[in-house]
Amino acid sequence: MTQSGRQRGIFPLPLPTGEAKQDHCPCSSRSVGRRLGEKAHVNQWVRDLVVTLNSLYAGVEYAGSFAADRTPATLSQRLCLDRLRTAVLDAGKPPEGITGQGALSELRTLPGYSGEPASLAPLQLELLSLPPKGSEPASLEKILEGKAEKISERLMSKVVSESEVVARKGLVGVRCPYSDPLLKQCPRVYASFCRKLAESGLVEYRRECTERVGAFTVWKKSGRQRLVIDCRAANLHFDQPDRVHLATGSAFARLAVDSGEPVEVGGVDIADAFYNIQLLPALRRYFGLPSVRASHVGVTHTIEGKCKPNDLIVPVLKAVPMGWTHALWVCQSCHEIIVDEIPRIAFNPRLVDRQPAPGMDPFVHTEYVDNFVALSQRPGLAFELANEVGQRLRERGLPTHEVEAGRGIETLGWKFSETEPVVKVTAKRLWRLRLATHELLREGRADGRLIERLVGHYTFAGLLCRGLLSVFQPTYAFIRKQYTTQCWIWPEVRRELFWASSLLCLIRKDMSIPWSTKVHATDASHWGRGVVSGEREVADVRVIGGVCDRWRFSRESESLIAGMPDSVQEGEGETDGSFSLAMPRAEHETLGFSREVPLDFIGTGWQKVDSAPWSRDEPIAALEGRVLVWLGQHLARSRKNHDRKHLVLTDSMTVTLAMAKGRSSAKGMNRICRQLAALEFATGAQLVPRPSLGSSHVPGERQLRKVTGSNKDAETPAVKKSNKQSSLGSVQRRKVHRASVRKRLHGEGLVKDASSTKTFLERRSVTSARERSYSLAWNSLVSWAKSNRKDMTSVTALDLAVTVRLNEMFFDGHDLADGTTLLAAVKFFRQDAKEQKLTRASDALAGFRKLDPPQGRVPLPWPMLCMIVVSLIGAGHTEVGWWLLLIWATCSRPGECHRLLMKHLERSLISEGLPEFKRTRGVGGKPGPSKVGETDEAVIIDHPYLQGLLPRICAGNASKRAEEHVFSFDMSEASRLFVSVVNELGYDKVGINCVYQVRHGSSSTDVLQEFRTLEQVQKRGRWQTFKSVRRYSNGGRLSQVYGQLSAAQRSQAEIAERGIQKTFGASGACQ
């Protein structure tokens, strides 16, 4: 925000003013009703997109309504809203026949290699998709000619020894392969199945085999059935297959064209590809189907010789089975070798992952298992290439389907637009995912396996726009913890699934968006940030930006990173240089590009864009990411930067790799990824970071050092000597700084407490109040044991003593909470009791709980609170009354409001003129984490009847400084005053006895009046678990408690309510 109150950044985006739901006249026609319904659906989806993007950027669930904000939207914001509406309109209507229930049922199945769901199908022989009758699979010699020997040798080298197979079977535990139930239960059907396979040339008969496999079918898109072989046991006889290089959404996302002409697609695929490739004779013994009588299949001779009608023979596959781990590699290798032999195509680089995308002039091609795809902007060229490849495949014995070519074609799960060079998710995939997600959210229950499959489909779509991958964070925790258990979906998971379904219409890539000639360089220190810029040639920018630094590292390297300490991953720790990540040599040699940014590209001529200090301390990796977020907002303010690619040079490999991946497992870094994703989705601008590591010539080195506050002088001989200790000095300085801060804040920990056997950190594992209650309970137990001569030296004796004490406490009238505190205190002060379970004492406490169930705190109704506040203010305790109202207004814990400093109260028009309550916790003004780990939280006081509360508190404390506490009274004394007034008013008889009931009353009222959902209440009140929210936010108890008051008590409370609302309501803010 500027000083004039005008918003500079695009976030938060204002909500569209159009109504999400529109009622139409009952007498209007159905066509009018449909049009209005479609318009309402579009408006609602746009609003969902705005809420999603605001939430991703702000990092909070609650983003206030901006519909009534008097500040007009900026030009950039209007462009973003138009972009969102266009994307929703472009998504169109759901395809015919797709419903929420049907889509969810379809997505419950696992996807195949193309990303399409593969639903298990009951076997129907007439629908089985196999090579035609009388055909024979083509041998490798026919397909590959002179190159067949190399492929055969490679396959034979993958066979492992029998001892290795036995060891693997013991670990895996595969008992028997899966087969279609009809094949196992009906010998006649199985015999017909074997005869059909033999007619298609897929099996030969032998006396015996080495390993057994099973057979089942799945549905194809055409409505026919695909034969799949369960080769789990057979796969144990082979090593892992070699890697194949395919083109996924990541490769398509890197395609670039110079003009705005649409891209033509030409494709041809091999019919029943795997079953038209002959399996090596030496490997067939590992793929034997269940035995069958020779007479049932009409066989008189096997490979070994003549057989009798009653002999059991084994149908052995002689074609590459779909289900074998090496099947994909065999098919892909054959396909690539054949295509590379075509001179017209051989000289054009192939589009694959982990390599720069080739230019589309004149065309780009890729082979994806059995599919050949050609892309070109020249009319008719893609069809010519696909037709030529199809002809060559048929000549080598591999039959193909008809060539498909033209504009607006779908291929490999992606749709190429017929009017512009844009690739996006297919309409069927988009609506199937969206409707299935909404149906799942409606049902509300799922296990981790279902969520995992749904996230898998979103991941496939997210390969095109990797920002979508940053959406999921707690979802992965839900998958791990509830993998086999069906339960209610966590609120955080529901929120992330809602975000993902809203963003689906934005999963698209415009291949014609240009590169910006202005290159930016960023740097950060613990003091502040710095950004510089310089003009470069667009051809050089395209080459540098076309490389992804994530390609440097293999999966083995990523596993090494996963094993590193968290501090090193986050950028806090430093290594001694002995740890390095290197790509395997073979893979490195296949990448024909330079991995470093050339020094001549960095050059000179950098101009300062911005420098500023940080507002809070964070790990250096997070600060490096914050600079990119600031740069993204800075670029988004100008319309000329929208729908452009922007190259950014940084010295943080952590940020570069996180952005290249699209997400991070570290929560702080994933927060950065979400913000950058929100900027990209809203504006179409793409930030492409490249690291400039390993060189002293950092981009704009002198400017960045100056603006970030670094004290790196020119390298004189003395400085060179000191640079050897630079990293150590930086660590040491941070260590000294942390030590001084901790001594200042927790100096009492340096003095040993003679009255306690625990260290300072052990005592601080619980709150001070909890430690005092534990001490009282433990000292009371020790005194009781001495007076009753109870031995507590051993764990067994201690268990007996606590059990007897709990029994006495029950009959002495103690509350269950006293017994619970006693047992917790014993485990706190006796480590041996914590390690060994106190069986008898635990059973005694369970009996205590059964006979005297715990009574939950009842919520305090609003009129009763008003009466309590009026009584306190009338008695001269105005601050205590304000304190109680602030607890209600913010749904805070009493201690949180009591610790507030004046600087934490802010008045700003951030949402419909609602005042903001900034809740920053800590001692002496130093921010510290709350109970749920938050360090900086802001809450909007949005109750209409309390709009004047914050101004009155500020006016009453106008003489206080920013670092002084808002409330000067003792909290214990205030609690006693509260209980005293409650007793005088007679509210204790209905269960009101502590200040915490104010907080519970606030949340219960919000839920009862539908002012907030339970999820929003949890976020606002920072409840750690959803279970606590449901327990304490109980609107029904409010009515029950208020109904127990007498008529006179209710009349007094209602009069007090009108007085409070008149004093602190919206009108009271101006008095």
Label this structure with key terms.
1071 residues, 6 domains, 5-stranded mixed β-sheet, 4-stranded mixed β-sheet, globular
Describe the protein:
The protein has 1071 residues and is of the alpha+beta class. It folds into 6 domains: 1-92, no CATH class; 120-241 and 278-323, Roll (HIV Type 1 Reverse Transcriptase, Chain A, domain 1); 425-507, no CATH class; 518-574 and 581-712, 2-Layer Sandwich (Nucleotidyltransferase, domain 5); 760-851; 862-1070, Intergrase catalytic core (hpI Integrase, Chain A, Orthogonal Bundle). The chain contains 45 helices and 27 strands. The strands form 8 sheets. The protein has a 5-stranded mixed beta sheet with strand order 20-19-18-21-22, sandwiched between helices. The protein has a 4-stranded mixed beta sheet with strand order 1-4-5-2. It has a 4-stranded antiparallel beta sheet with strand order 9-10-6-11, with helices on one face. Strand 18 and strand 19 (528-535) form a beta hairpin.
